[in-house]
Design a protein that fits this description.
heterodimer; A: 217 residues; alpha/beta; D-Maltodextrin-Binding Protein, domain 2; 9 helices; 11 strands; B: 403 residues; BirA Bifunctional Protein, domain 2; 3 domains; eight-stranded mixed β-sheet; four-stranded mixed β-sheet; 13 helices; 40% helix
Chain lengths: 217, 403
């Protein structure tokens, strides 16, 4: 049997992905077993799981090192690779937003050459390019909310879940760029060459999602 | 003093004898396939004016071109693909040649923004262009040639997806979509984003049959039945004509017995500004990218001043090598040259022996005995011949060919 390789984003997303795959009838015992291995193979089922950093999942899938990936839409937007985005898995829901001091609301475009701090330089650049605004992107690796507070940047582009961190730091959402959640992506060649294995998997997960959607309150 | 003299730039690589021989084999087999079908090889310059690509094609992003200037300040670029220069040639130097014009090219291309995963900034491509015919026979000929080319280099596990971009243009007209949504829709279909497609259909207030069409397209068809189903769901003459044209091409491919390799995928919607009709991509195991791709581009040659319908395809020769390697296959046998070593005083005899072997078709190098000895010790295989003190040839290791 042709081996199928699934890349998972290490962390919370991977746990939720495994729950979903299991509910859809995929045997995930090899990933459940506690281990520090980065590649987990279930030879009998012809399945291989790769545990990757979230930002690297689209890369593995694009190059065909993995056939399927489960990863957040934020990473997909940032990496902007040519993949099949076959399913919206629903979990990990949040928003990609432009945030800054409340008094900037509605007059973002009044500042020429804004400085924008973000972990997502490509998303930020694309957003402001579409608005025909020139910006200076400052790439940070975390706690992006700090930047406007210490005068490093006027605004930030970041993920907002509850908005609590923003409020506690005196910042507000100025605009929503996109709604985010976990997605299942498939390599374009694998989709053709391994259709017999991938299509049933997609359909099983889709059925599971539909069912869960119906039973949800 | 620089520090880079030991390195090659990012995205380019040296080809050592074994790989180089394999690449030449691939090129030769492709050349044979093209030649047998009446495609004549041309060689266009490695350097073009930037304007050639700027005028010639909407699909070449300026970021993708390696650019520099000539002494008059004009922008030059390295050859990005084989098709645009071939179109330039067809419209200028071959202006008076009768059509259809069948051209082939084999050479290295340079793309600044493609790098990684088997893709290099410098890579080999071989391809053909059939210019001056808009008939389905021409589309089918090019697809059949692509399949024959892949088989000729040893790629047997082959899947070819065939689409028709005219169908999508018909849909846009039928559903009266334009502006930003007309740019968004093909992206969503092409990347199979079912949920986002449903949302878009909702927002645009499209009828149910439009949603069925989108679903069929994004799922990728495969069978003739689904093609027929699609035909019942659309009304616009452009879309119906595209389906009819696709059917005609498929029927010819059936006649030439390559249909088993082919599945229909009307959801392939990249490079919409460039392609105008039937498009196709060839896939195989071990590569994350298509091995070959091509299609109909009726607008391109016109931008060089000659109105010629055209179709063609290109196949990566470097990609072919990567695919063969990952599939554990080799292309032909690799034969190393015979190392001939001669003892002192036997140079003349040695040369005569070498020449006689060369006449038999062997590759032979000729050196004093020490080099042959060193070769014997250093290399685990490869034929070695000694011309001994009496001037007699003695095989120390016989000629064999290995895979």
């Amino acid at each position: 049997m042709l081996e199928l390789t699934i890349a998972l984003a290490k962390g919370r997303l991977a746990d939720q992905a495994i729950d979903l795959l299991e509910a859809a009838g995929t045997d995930c015992r090899v990933v459940r077993a506690p281990s520090r291995k980065l590649i987990l193979t279930d030879e009998q089922a012809g399945l291989r799981f790769i545990m990757a950093k979230p930002a690297d999942v689209p890369t593995y899938v694009d190059y065909g090192a993995a056939d399927i990936g489960i990863v957040g839409k934020d990473t997909l937007l940032e990496e902007n690779r040519s993949l099949y985005e076959v399913l919206n898995l629903g979990f990990g829901a949040c928003r990609m937003c432009v945030c800054g001091p409340e008094n900037l609301a509605g007059r973002l475009d009044s500042i020429p050459n804004k400085r924008v701090a973000t972990k997502y330089p490509n998303i930020a650049r694309a957003y402001f390019e579409a608005r025909r605004e020139s910006v200076e992107i400052i790439r940070l690796n975390g706690s992006v909310e700090l930047a406007p507070l210490v005068g490093l940047a006027e605004v930030i582009v970041d993920i907002v879940e509850s908005g609590r961190t923003l409020r506690e730091n005196g910042l507000a959402v100025l605009d929503t760029i996109a709604s985010l959640s976990a997605r299942m992506v498939v390599n374009r060649v694998s989709m053709k060459m391994k259709a017999d294995r991938i299509n049933p998997l997609i359909q099983a997960v889709r059925r599971q999602l539909d069912q869960a959607g119906r039973t949800a309150p | 003093m620089g520090q880079w003299q030991f390195h090659t730039p990012v995205g380019v690589a040296d080809l050592l004898p074994r790989e180089c021989a394999a690449k030449r084999q691939v090129e030769q087999r492709l050349r044979d396939v093209f030649c047998r079908r009446g495609y004549q090889e041309i060689e266009t310059p490695g350097i073009e004016f930037y304007d050639v690509y700027a005028a010639g094609s909407d699909t070449v992003p300026q970021e993708g071109l390696f650019k520099f200037f000539d002494e008059q300040g004009r922008i030059l670029c390295l050859r990005y693909d084989g098709t645009v220069p071939a179109a330039r040639v067809a419209a200028t130097l071959c202006r008076d040649n009768p059509v259809p014009l069948r051209l082939a090219y084999i050479g290295n291309m340079y793309r600044y923004n493609e790098y990684g995963g088997g893709k290099q900034r410098e890579f080999g491509q071989a391809g053909i262009e059939l210019m001056g015919s808009d008939a389905p026979e021409a589309d089918a000929e090019v697809i059949a040639t692509a399949i024959e080319a892949a088989l000729a280099v040893g790629i047997e596990d082959l899947q070819v997806s065939v689409g028709q971009v005219g169908f999508f243009h018909g849909l846009l007209a039928e559903w009266q979509i334009d502006g930003a949504d007309a740019a968004l829709l093909p992206q969503l279909i092409d990347s199979k984003q079912q949920v986002a497609l449903d949302e878009l259909a909702e927002r645009l207030g499209l009828p149910d049959r439009a949603r069925s069409v989108m679903r069929l397209m994004s799922q990728g068809l495969g069978s003739e039945t689904e093609l027929n189903e699609l035909a019942t769901l659309v009304r616009h003459p452009l879309a119906l004509a595209a389906l009819e044209n696709l059917r005609a091409v498929l029927s010819i491919l059936d006649d030439v017995q390559v249909r088993p390799y082919i599945s229909v995928d009307l959801g392939m919607l990249q490079s919409l500004n460039y392609y105008t009709g039937v498009i196709f991509k060839g896939f195989t195991y071990g590569l994350g990218f298509p091995l070959f791709s091509g299609g109909r581009y009726d607008g391109l040659v016109r931008s060089f001043g000659r109105d010629l319908a055209a179709t063609g395809f290109s196949m990566g020769t470097s990609l072919t090598l990567a695919a063969l390697q990952r599939q554990g296959k080799t292309i032909g046998a690799w034969s190393r040259p015979v190392r001939l070593g001669y003892l002192p005083g036997q140079h003349k005899k040695a040369l005569r022996t070498a020449d006689s072997l060369r006449r038999d078709g062997l590759a032979v190098s000729c050196d004093p005995v020490e080099s042959a000895a060193a070769w014997l010790a250093h290399n685990p295989d490869g034929p070695v011949l000694l011309v001994d003190a009496r001037g007699e040839p003695v095989w120390l290791r016989e000629v064999t060919t290995d895979a």
